[in-house]
Amino acid sequence: KQEVTQIPAALSVPEGENLVLNCSFTDSAIYNLQWFRQDPGKGLTSLLLIQSSQREQTSGRLNASLDKSSGRSTLYIAASQPGDSATYLCAVYTGTASKLTFGTGTRLQVTL
Amino acid sequence: EPEVTQTPSHQVTQMGQEVILRCVPISNHLYFYWYRQILGQKVEFLVSFYNNEISEKSEIFDDQFSVERPDGSNFTLKIRSTKLEDSAMYFCASSTDRELLYGYTFGSGTRLTVV
Fold first, then answer.
1. Which of A46, A95, A101 minimises the CB distance to B104?
2. Cα–Cα distance, B78 to B19 (Å, whole number)
């Protein structure tokens, strides 16, 4: 059974700092991994999608990497801003069942 | 950019009542899903739907739950007799393909409160 873990559970950084969020999964036979952002009480906004054949994806100040063999992904946020404050979720798709398995999330607060 | 639309955004219902949560997936998507998130917990898979039938369902998706695509645009989740523990945020999602080459698109959710 696929298990997805995210570390740290919460993170507070000053504005302008670069930061890394971690995601690990137990079953490396994944099709892809998706990073989402969730604002309090709101929906899930897709940030980046990495297919199993890819090593990384970039969008603006965000960079996600994937090491499938070791069961790890990182989300790198450059030059953090207060507007980046949210919960970041990673989710993996194994394809054996047509569903995503989510991690517990990292709650990020960027302070002025 | 195309969106998945969910209504209502918040619903309060009495225990034992039936509720229907509504979703309009992206028009050219073929695969539809419901997920839920109990406050403070992980987002959990409920059910996937393709070609007018359920593809997969989780242990959570018992006989109290049902899904339907009554017309070409809507996708609904019905809970027949709500329990307190059904209180959660319910997310609808859709995708173009089973392999998720383009990922999922989620709606903004319906917050269900059972009192």
1. A46
2. 6
